[in-house]
Amino acid sequence: MNFFSKKNNTNLIAILFITLVISILVLIQRFDDFTLKTNLMAFQKREMQSTVNNYISVIDHMRNDMIDNMEKNGLEYSEEDIKQATLTFMRHVIHETDFVNGAYLWINEVINFDGGDNYAIRQVHGNLKDTEGILLSTSTPDAQGNLPYLEELNGIKENGEIFYNYYFKEYHSDNISEKVTYAKLYEPYNWIVCTGTYLNSLYDPAGGVSNHHKIVFYTICIILLIFSLLLFTHLIVSNILSSRKLIQETEVLKGKINKDSLSGAYSRTFGNKLLKEYFNNFTTCGRNYSLAILDIDNFKSINDKYGHPMGDCVIKNMVKTFQDLQNVDDHIIRWGGDEFILTFSNIDEDLEKKLGKLNKTIANQIIITEKGEKFQYTISIGASTFNEKDNTINDTIKRIDDALYLAKRNKNSFYIIR
């Protein structure tokens, strides 16, 4: 009896031990499955977040680049123009990009942050292009009655971003699957940039993660990493290619804006910016400059007697003469007609000698017309420097205008108001 009892106890202990070992192994396997699922989901979320952030970075870079180019060149634009150009670019990129694991990307624009019907408009959708332009409602349920649009909007309002799950029909299929989504707000345009993927594309939610699925997991990790790098590279290259023409046109336009086409002097547009910069340097750090204004004496008579082409020739000749005599930091700006503003950054040099030399050099030149006629011309110059009483650059310009008037009274001369 005791023998059988001992044998039964041994068998029971053995069974319990085997059961315990099996239970531990199952728990380890389940824990391993759970850990792998958790790590896989965490990795997937990081990749989704990285993808959306990359897209938002490209959107913001392109928007700011276009605004900078417009403002630098003094071009008029509206925020709506920039927005539509950015939207067209992003729609092209998203439509042309192939995503993996059934993932795709879309952009919704929030119209009313209070939610309700027509609270947002779908601007871009990577898979469902025919839905672009439709209005959305926070009361729209998913396949299981959840309200994903409402959940998304509440998360965006609270944190500016959100991860959430909902049930949606798979692309090109009638299967309903759970989907994980990441959404983030791009505030300048109230765009919610989203990406999502179905959970069954990552692992089998019913039976744990098998060894085969573990291999798939690491393969997916590598693919996602490569995909993220390729996507970022694709977006940057696409942005560069799309912006190249704009940059080239901007450079051409910049040259036209900064230079006067006839004389080769700087344009008045450029001159206004330069003079304001100089005046700001004077008021903020005390750096002073000499300014002068000149015009060609009796210029109308030259045009009337020899014709406008010769008048143009005189203007170009006068500008070239100044450019030959100027220092590297001096500028000549065509202010209008035959009137020019000169800037001298080094006021330690003798301004009187510089203006006198320019006057004398001009007066000694001989212009020959196409008919062989010879004539000479002169200029008058008024000059001054910034002073503490100047409130704006216009005060200085008025002072050199007054000096020009006094120079003309002295005939073919220059006058400096100290």
Q: Distance between the terminal alpha carbons, to the nearest Å? A: 129 Å
Q: Could you give the count of β-strands?
A: 13
Quote the beta fraction: 15-25%
Which runs of at least 5 residues are low in confidence (pLDDT < 50)?
A: 1-7, 205-209, 249-253
Reading the helices and strands in chain order gives HHEEEHEEEHHEHHEEHEEEHE
Spatial shape:
elongated
User: Number of helical segments?
Assistant: 9
Describe the main β-sheet briefly.
6 strands, antiparallel
- Give the overall pLDDT as a whole number: 82
Return the structural class: alpha+beta
- In angstroms, what is the radius of gyration? 38 Å
Q: How are strands sequenced across the largest beta sheet? A: 3-2-1-6-5-4
Helix content: 40-55%
Structure notes:
The protein is of the alpha+beta class. Helix content is about 55%, strand content about 20%. It is built from nine helices and 13 strands. The protein has helices at about 1-70, 80-95, 150-160, 210-260, 270-285, 300-305, 310-325, 350-365, 395-410, and strands spanning about 105-110, 120-125, 135, 160-170, 175-185, 190-200, 290-295, 330-335, 340-345, 365-370, 375, 380-385, 415. It has a six-stranded antiparallel sheet, with helices on both faces. Strand 5 (about 175-185) and strand 6 form a beta hairpin. The relative contact order is 0.08.
